[in-house]
From TrEMBL:
Coiled coil: none annotated. Pfam families: adh_short_C2. Keywords: Oxidoreductase. The keyword Nucleus does not apply. InterPro entries: NAD(P)-bd_dom_sf, Sc_DH/Rdtase_CS, SDR_fam. This is SDR family oxidoreductase. Gene3D superfamilies: NAD(P)-binding Rossmann-like Domain. It comes from the Bacteria. Belongs to the short-chain dehydrogenases/reductases (SDR) family.
Amino acid sequence: MEITFKDKVVIVTGGASGIGRATALAFAKKGAKVVVVDWKENDEEVDLIKELGSEAIFIKCDVSKADDVKAMVDKTIAAFGRLDYAYNNAGIEGTQANTFDCTEENWDKTININLKGIWLCMKYEIPEILKQGKGAIVNCASVAGRVGFVGLPAYVASKHGVVGLTKTTALEYAKLGIRVNAVCPGVIQTPMIDRLTGKTKEAIAQFTGLEPMGRFGLPEEIANAVVWMCSDEASFVTGHAMTVDGGFTAQ
Ligand code: NAD
C-alpha cells in the first residue's frame, strides 16, 4: 500500500532542525500539509518552508508554554481548517550532570520541554484530531526512555515519562480513532549529538564504538518510522514505543 497523506495536515514540533526537519520533509513528500513548529525562527526555517512547498507554514512556539501551544494549534486550524496527525518531537538534552549535581533549573527546564511539552501538545491537538474521527500522534522519546544514561538524569526521566504518557493517552483514545505511539531513537546524527560530542574525533569514536552497526543513525531513518506509525499501514499499532536504534538496546 502506497502511503499518502494527501489533504491531511500534520504538526511537527522541533521541526526546524535534525529529526524534526527530516520528518517534516518526509510528510511533505507523502503529500501532507506541514506545520513546522519551533521556538527558533531564522533563515534556516524560511529555507525549510520553501523546500516544503506552498502548503507548509512555520509557527513560532515554545512547547513548554500552554498559551503558546494553544495559539499554535489555533493558528494551524486557521491556516488549514483541520488537524490529522502530530509528531511531537521538540526536545533538549539538558545540561550533563549526575543526579547529585543536577540543578533544579536543569531539571525543570528539561522536564518542562521534553515531558510537559508533549502533554501540552497532545492536550490541544487531540480535540482537533477528534473532529476528523481518525488520526495519529507520535511522541518523541529516546533509547533514554528505555535504559539509563549516566550524566543525563533529567533527560532520562523525561523520556521514560514520554513512554508512559504515550501508553496512557493511547488507551484513552483507542476507541475514539486516535492512535498514539512513541519513537525511541538511538544516537542520531543531528545538531543535538554534535553538542553532546563537541564534534571531537575522540567523542565521536567513543559513541560509535557503542553502536552495533558502528555508525550513528540518520534523521531520515527516524522520519521513516514516524511516517509509518502515522499511516494506515500501522492501523492496529497504538500504545507502542518503537525503538529505532541500530540494535543499541539489544546489547
Ligand atoms: P535538534 O537539537 O537538532 O532539534 C531539536 C529542535 O527542537 C530544535 O529545532 C529546537 O529549536 C527545538 N526545540 C527545543 N526546545 C523547544 C521548545 N521548547 N519549543 C519548541 N521547539 C523547541 O535535536 P534532534 O536530535 O533532532 O532531537 C529531536 C528529538 O529527538 C528530541 O526530542 C530528542 O530528545 C530526540 N532524540 C534525539 C536523539 C539523537 O541522537 N539526536 C536520540 C534520541 C532522541
